[in-house]
Amino acid sequence: MIDLRSDTITRPTEEMRRAMYEAEVGDDVYGEDPTVNRLQEKAAEVTGKEAALYVPSGTMGNQVSILTHTSPGTEVIMEANAHIYYYEAAAASALAGIQPRPLAGQKGVLPPELVEDAIRPDDVHLPPTSLICLENTHNRAGGRIVPLENMKAIHDLARRHNLPVHLDGARIFNASVASGIPVSDYAACTSSVQFCFSKGLGAPVGSIITGPSDFINEAKRWRKRLGGGMRQAGVIASACLVALETMVERLADDHASARLLADGLAGLKGLNFDPADVDTNIVIVKPLTMTPQRFNDELKKRGILASVMGPDMVRLTTSREVESKDLEKTVAAVKEILAL
Ligand SMILES: Cc1ncc(COP(=O)(O)O)c(C=O)c1O
């Protein structure tokens, strides 16, 4: 099978497996796992933040951040197609007790004036705004890079309103590699950042939150409350260190694969798709002559796995697990399906 469902399907490299076997470990709930500590230091450094906290997943990283920044009965501004709004099983409402304020972005990008207008004035009838969440790259917008200038403008207005900004940077390294802008420049526009090791970076488990030391100390308490305190976590953190050391630059290969796919699908009748929308490793197409589910089923019959992303979209994601011949096969299969 050619698996284009997600970059989460990437399996650990030999080097990661060796590092896992050899990892020096301790009890991380006591802060005594040297490998986790090294990973946290490195992640803090790469994002230009004071401290970091290793968590089991991107979802937990986002939710621990929301829990730490907010209190129940407040409102959190986010893009209407954000992962935090769409794919985290309403955790922010169920766990943090916040009210999401989803705003429609343009291809994942929130116009700063829209964000500023959504900040609640001080009025007893209204929920106080407590946080602004951004996502970069933006998954449901097709891996779009949110421009640094946009993040800066939102950060500036957030500061004027004394509000924190959390970045769901699950794929911030994709944004950085594709744009040439350091991760720390994006992170400078935020109060906290979550990024994932287990997507294109290829590690088997884990995400990290970075931010100021006092924020991370409080986040550690929330991680414990949620049951995310891990013990000899150096076994998995060691693979994340290898990911940071060896897998960042090669994300460019995934972007080149997505470009190959995009160029092959460009101009096909029966698909609503603009190759100019592909910035990184995600290609989203909208079949016009059949449902996304049928399109997906037909792909599967031809040995290709993709993801249905709602009533009109199918997502094809490139990763280290796909080769260029797989993409040529995919383009040929799509042409065949559209001719049905
Ligand atoms: C943008 C974004 N944020 C967060 C997550 C959550 O990560 P996890 O699956 O590790 O919980 C994902 C997962 O695909 C994602 O795409």
Would you tell me the overall average pLDDT? 98
How is the main sheet built? 7 strands, mixed
> Care to count the β-strands?
13
Quaternary arrangement of the chains shown?
single chain
Instruction: Give the overall shape.
Output: globular
Q: Which CATH architecture of the largest domain? A: 3-Layer(aba) Sandwich
CATH class of the largest domain: Alpha Beta
Content-based structural category: alpha/beta
| Tally of structural domains | 2
Number of continuous helical runs: 14
Q: What name does the CATH topology of the largest domain carry?
A: Aspartate Aminotransferase, domain 2
- Beta-strand percentage? 15-25%
The Cα radius of gyration reads 20 Å
Distance between the termini: 22 Å
Please list the strands of the largest sheet in the order they lie side by side. Answer: 2-8-7-6-5-3-4
Helix content: 40-55%
Q: What small molecules accompany the polymer chains?
A: pyridoxal-5'-phosphate
Element order, helices and strands? Answer: EHHEHEHHEHEHEHHEEHHHEEHEEEH
CATH superfamily of the largest domain: Type I PLP-dependent aspartate aminotransferase-like (Major domain)
Low-pLDDT segments, ≥5 res: none
Describe the structure.
By secondary structure, the chain is α/β, with parallel strands linked by helices. It has two domains: 7-246, Type I PLP-dependent aspartate aminotransferase-like (Major domain) (Aspartate Aminotransferase, domain 2); 250-338, Aspartate Aminotransferase, domain 1 (Alpha-Beta Complex), CATH 3.90.1150. Helices cover 42% and strands 16% of the residues. It contains 14 helices and 13 strands. The chain has helices at residues 14-22, 34-47, 58-69, 83-86, 91-94, 112-118, 148-160, 172-179, 183-187, 213-225, 234-246, 251-265, 292-301, 324-338; strands spanning 2-3, 51-55, 75-79, 99-103, 129-135, 165-168, 192-196, 207-211, 271-272, 282-287, 304-305, 307-308, 314-317. Helix 2 (34-47) packs parallel to helix 11 (234-246) and helix 3 crosses helix 10 (213-225). It starts with a strand and ends with a helix. The structure holds pyridoxal-5'-phosphate. The site of pyridoxal-5'-phosphate (PLP) has 13 residues, from helix 3.
